[in-house]
Structures are given as structure tokens and as C-alpha cells.
């Protein structure tokens, strides 16, 4: 091989060997399997920030220890693949893993009014295709893909089988492109439990992305209360049975500092910064005895109060409390 063609090959291969994205044994699922403790944040993309702004947010998170980001909500119609390109590129610049989430609720939030066009086929499927397209263009930083945020709880697709269909379809396309990218849904234990025959869907996911919110429990108290931890454990036992050896990752957990965005179900609930901080610290305190012992990572919803009340920082960037969590224990 001549020197010029050798250098040409080096240039061509550069994007494939980015040191930040070397997966154990070449497998993202092994990476997920090895993760425990605090992993990172849920990041709301509804403000449609630029690549530079997102890269700055991701770099800030990373400077505080975050390793992984999962997106939440959507920008514009959510069906523009080039915006997912921007998100993935921002993650790559920051050197952080990204889990792009295809928002399958046809509208933004559950109590928003639907119009005749707000259906799964018209609004949600184009988002799934857009995410797939962008991920295939720049797979490196993509740790996994989420098809829906609580799609079973909100019954986004009409049936669990309809979701399974799109997951399997996405996987076929990844496989045909030589990509081994794990796919799942980010869902509550309750969402799986109320959805009838979940066999095909459960078989279609590579691992379980877990939404865990003791704040919504009927017996919720304060973030740091024993009931918070007990409720988490009850849900996790359900997921361990469902997963049958497949990895678990808590992709969304948190506690709000106010009740403005999502109302609670318990009259005794405490929504305050102190309560939010106490739930964060409760998770961090269980690093050794639970998260490391079980090899489970947790990601905090949310990075900022774009999801009102749920962030660790206010909209203007002010920290609500001096948050930090262990990455190793
Ligand atoms: C990588 O593969 C080897 C050999 O199969 C195995 O022993 C090891 O546990 C794997 N590493 C990870 C992180 O999965
Ligand atoms: C949604 O519909 C309800 C009932 O028709 C109405 O009261 C409410 O104002 C509507 N909300 C929005 C955001 O349009
Ligand atoms: C639904 O979409 C069609 C085709 O784009 C459009 O003509 C119609 O006005 C839309 N209906 C509503 C209620 O938005
Ligand atoms: C997979 O590829 C086929 C053929 O190009 C396409 O029709 C389908 O929409 C793709 N599926 C996803 C989830 O992107
Ligand atoms: C549930 O779905 C699976 C896969 O689609 C099917 O094989 C099974 O018979 C169904 N179980 C029941 C109880 O309907
Ligand atoms: C919470 O649980 C711990 C450990 O199980 C126990 O020691 C403590 O008394 C409990 N606190 C309350 C208020 O129930």
C-alpha cells in the first residue's frame, strides 16, 4: 500500500476509532451491562437548542461526572432527522453517550388536546424513522435507542405488538447496516403491568429502560422517605423477573421541587428542593448495597427545569443544590 493510500485509509477510519466510543468487546449491551451508579441525565429537547448549545450542556454535565444522556420530548414536529444528527453530534463533541428517544406520544404531554391528525401513524412513526435515520448516519455515540417514553402507560401505539413491530423493524435496519445497537422502551413497571399480552414486546427489547418515580405512588411522602426506596425496590423486583437476565438501566428517575408539571397521587407528598435533594442522595447512598451489587445505573430526570420542577438546575442555569453523586463505589 502506498503512503498516500495508507493515509487516506487512516482518515476514512478515524470516525470509527474515536477513543471515547470503544465498547467492551465491541458490544453496547456489554457496556450497559457493566454500568452502575449515577449515569447522567434526562435532557428535554423541546427548546430546540443549537448543536453548540447542546454540546455546552453536555460538556457541563460531563464535567460533573455524567456519562450518558437520554433525550425527552421533541423539537418541532420531531420528525426531522437532521435535528437528531445535531443531538448526536453534540454528544460526540462532549464525549458523552447518547440515547436518542423517539417520542411516540402523538402530542407533547398527556393532557394536551388531540386533533384528528394527532395519531401514532401520522405523528409518531415519522419520529421513529427520523431517529433511525440519524442513528445510522452517526452511530458512534449512540449507546441505545428508546422507542417511546412510557408508550405503554399512555397507550401511544394502540397495542404492545405495534410497538414491537417498529422495534423489530428498526433492528432489522441496524443489522443490515452492520450495527448492533440495543433498542428498548423507557417505561414504568406499571405501564408493562397494565398492558395485557406483552410477550412480543418484551421479546423485542434488548434490555429494559426503566422509568421509576416513587413521587407518583399512592403512599409517597418526602423524597428521602423509606417509602420512596421501598417503592423503587418493588418495581425493580418486577423488572428483574421480566428481564430474565437481560440488563436493566433506570433511564428516568427523580423527584420534583414543585407539583406544577405533574400532579402527585398522595396527599402526603412533599415537593420541594429539600425533598428532591433527599431523593438524589437516597439513590447515591445505595451505591454499594444496591446499584453496584445489581449492576444497575440510574439517570436523573431532569437536567434542567425545562421539565418544570424536575431539574437539578433552574432555567437560568443556577444549581438548585450542590449536587454530586458517586460514579464508583
Ligand atoms: C468480553 O468478552 C470476554 C470473553 O468472552 C468476557 O470474559 C468478558 O466478560 C467480556 N467483557 C465484558 C465487559 O462484557
Ligand atoms: C382542551 O379541551 C378542553 C375541553 O374541550 C378545554 O377545556 C381546554 O381548554 C383545551 N385545552 C387546550 C390547551 O386547548
Ligand atoms: C390534518 O392534516 C391534513 C393534511 O395535512 C390537513 O389538511 C388538515 O387540516 C389537518 N387537520 C387538522 C385538524 O389539523
Ligand atoms: C427500515 O428500512 C426500510 C427500507 O428502507 C424502511 O421502509 C423502514 O421505514 C425502515 N424502518 C425504520 C424504523 O427506520
Ligand atoms: C401472547 O402473545 C404471544 C406472542 O404474540 C402469543 O404467542 C401468546 O399466545 C399470547 N398469549 C396469550 C395468553 O394470548
Ligand atoms: C427506614 O428504614 C430504616 C432501615 O430499614 C429503618 O432503620 C428506619 O427506622 C426507617 N425509618 C422510618 C421512619 O420508618
UniProtKB/TrEMBL annotation:
EC annotation from Swiss-Prot or TrEMBL: 3.2.1.39
Family: Belongs to the glycosyl hydrolase 17 family.
Compartment(s) where it occurs, according to its Swiss-Prot or TrEMBL record: Cell membrane
InterPro entries: Beta-glucan_modifiers (IPR050732), GH (IPR017853)
Signal peptide positions on this chain: 1-19
GO molecular function terms noted in the UniProt entry: glucan endo-1,3-beta-D-glucosidase activity
Topological relation to the membrane, as annotated: Single-pass type II membrane protein
Chief location bin: membrane
One BP annotation, GO: cell wall organization
Top-level enzyme category: hydrolase
UniProt keyword terms in alphabetical order: Carbohydrate metabolism, Cell membrane, Cell wall biogenesis/degradation, Glycoprotein, Hydrolase, Membrane, Polysaccharide degradation, Signal
Record's protein name: glucan endo-1,3-beta-D-glucosidase
Catalytic activity: Hydrolysis of (1->3)-beta-D-glucosidic linkages in (1->3)-beta-D-glucans
Cited function: Glucanases play a role in cell expansion during growth, in cell-cell fusion during mating, and in spore release during sporulation. This enzyme may be involved in beta-glucan degradation. Active on laminarin and lichenan.
Gene3D superfamilies reported in the protein's UniProt record: Glycosidases
Amino acid at each position: 500500500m502506498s503512503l498516500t493510500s495508507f493515509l487516506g485509509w487512516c482518515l476514512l477510519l478515524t470516525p470509527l476509532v474515536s477513543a471515547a466510543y470503544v465498547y467492551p468487546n465491541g458490544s453496547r449491551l456489554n457496556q450497559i451491562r457493566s454500568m452502575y451508579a449515577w449515569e447522567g441525565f434526562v435532557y428535554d429537547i423541546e427548546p430546540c437548542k443549537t448543536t453548540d448549545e447542546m454540546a455546552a450542556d453536555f460538556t457541563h454535565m460531563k464535567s460533573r461526572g455524567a456519562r450518558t444522556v437520554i433525550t425527552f420530548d421533541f423539537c418541532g414536529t420531531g420528525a426531522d432527522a437532521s435535528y437528531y444528527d445535531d443531538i448526536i453530534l453534540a454528544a460526540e463533541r462532549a464525549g458523552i453517550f447518547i440515547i436518542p428517544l423517539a417520542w411516540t406520544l402523538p402530542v407533547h404531554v398527556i393532557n394536551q388536546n388531540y386533533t384528528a391528525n394527532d395519531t401514532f401513524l401520522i405523528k409518531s412513526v415519522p419520529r421513529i424513522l427520523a431517529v433511525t435515520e440519524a442513528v445510522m448516519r452517526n452511530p458512534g455515540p449512540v449507546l441505545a435507542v428508546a422507542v417511546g417514553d412510557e408508550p405503554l402507560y399512555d397507550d401511544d401505539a394502540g397495542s404492545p405488538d405495534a410497538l414491537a413491530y417498529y422495534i423489530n423493524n428498526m433492528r432489522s435496519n441496524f443489522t443490515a447496516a452492520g450495527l448492533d445497537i440495543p433498542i428498548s422502551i423507557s417505561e414504568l413497571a406499571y405501564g408493562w403491568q397494565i398492558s395485557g399480552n406483552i410477550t412480543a414486546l418484551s421479546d423485542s427489547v434488548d434490555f429494559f429502560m426503566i422509568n421509576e418515580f416513587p413521587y407518583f405512588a399512592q403512599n409517597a411522602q418526602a423524597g428521602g422517605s423509606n417509602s420512596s426506596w421501598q417503592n423503587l425496590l418493588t418495581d425493580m423486583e418486577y423488572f428483574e423477573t421480566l428481564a430474565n437476565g437481560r440488563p436493566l438501566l433506570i433511564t428516568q428517575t427523580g423527584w420534583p421541587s414543585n407539583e406544577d408539571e405533574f400532579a402527585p397521587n398522595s396527599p402526603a407528598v412533599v415537593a420541594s428542593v429539600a425533598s428532591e435533594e433527599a431523593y438524589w442522595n437516597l439513590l447515591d447512598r445505595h451505591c454499594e448495597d444496591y446499584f453496584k451489587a445489581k449492576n444497575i445505573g440510574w439517570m436523573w430526570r431532569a437536567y434542567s427545569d425545562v421539565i418544570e420542577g424536575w431539574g437539578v438546575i433552574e432555567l437560568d442555569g443556577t444549581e438548585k443544590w450542590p449536587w454530586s453523586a458517586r460514579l464508583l463505589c
